[in-house]
Predict the 3D structure of the following.
Amino acid sequence: MTKIAITSEGPLLDDALDPRFGRAAGFILVDSQTLDFKYLDNGASQAMAQGAGIQAAENISRAGAKVLLTGYVGPKAFMALQAVGIKVAQNLENITVRQAVERYNAGQVEWAQAPNREGHGR
Amino acid sequence: MKVAIASGKGGTGKTTVSAALSSVWNRTVIAMDLDVEEPNLHLFLKPQIFGREKAYIEVPVADESKCTYCRACAELCQFKAISVLSNVLLIFTEMCHGCGGCLAICPEKALSPGQRELGEIVWGQAGSAGFLMGRSRVGEAMSPPLMREVKKKLQVMLEGSAADVIIDAPPGVSCPAVNAVMDADVIALVTEPTPFGLYDLQLAYEAFLPLGKPMGIVINRAGLGEDKVYDFCRSRDLPIWAEIPYDRQIAVAYSNSQIIAAVSAQHKALFTDLADKINQAGVIAGAVCHA
């Protein structure tokens, strides 16, 4: 099994994948085999002036995620995710969390080598 | 006495007014450009440069062999400039505000002070006026740290000289603008009689009002647009200290980087009058005016 973090607009597998990483509404942490999952709220990121992506990387790392499925990742968050060895698949949008997991299980996600968003801390 | 030339909206004429005021000021004065992200007062004052130096902010440098990943620094930092992920320590130097908290709190002494370049400080003389400015390094995200270093240099320049200070402030109403006006005795807000000018003037007025400093208005491009700026000033008892006409001669002088007080005797009188109004406001507020 692999523990996957997916950025999510809500607490359930059939909620929409949130394309934002640092400022996602929350994260669904799901076991890729059993589909057991739990929801990690990320609402506090809205109050952060900067560093939301780094904070999000810390949070999903601490929750034990080894894989991240999301839409857009900025440079600092990407660096943090790489530093702890979390694999990143980005450019996902307009699908549900469940569909994202299915794509992962079907081997249909591409692993990102670089961030796909400009940083905001400038 | 220190007077800040500020505005909400950019491009209203802060630098035009700052340059003209410093050219007609009748006491010793230092013109200080605190719009460090895009300083341009020097283009009009054309100062002789006496010196320049780099300015820095203190940032942490890690000796990771001493780090136990206790997270004390990461939890203290409000800006996520230092982050601990399981057993990796990451420092995002460009996000550091230089508070020094992480260095103080680290129980293993794994962090030591390093530097990030903020930009440069330039000083000199323009006619009878002293000149001082900051210029941010390209890529630097924060301007208040450099502004603080420029203000330290100002203190050195003011030692043993009884000079007034004219501050060319950055536009806006956030940290840089507030940092530029907070030490002033008087604030002159430059605006224009347009909906944009009015909207941003209202923001600037509200942002600076809690500072409790006397404020007055300079209306640039007077004759253009509409009367609502005047209505606003009246409703808030904001004195209109000067009206600079919407005038081709001024536009021509500006585009040739000339000080507009030098265009004609009439233009000069406009700014000597403005200087008088600012001084009167300063005296009423109890600012130290050097004879």
The two ends of chain A are 39 Å apart (CA to CA). The interface with chain B takes residues 48-52, 54-55, 57-58, 61-62, 76, 79-80, 83-84, 121-122 of chain A (CB under 8 Å). Residues 3-105 of chain A form a domain with the Nucleotidyltransferase; domain 5 fold (CATH 3.30.420.130). Strands of chain A lie at 3-8, 26-31, 37-41, 67-69, 87-89.
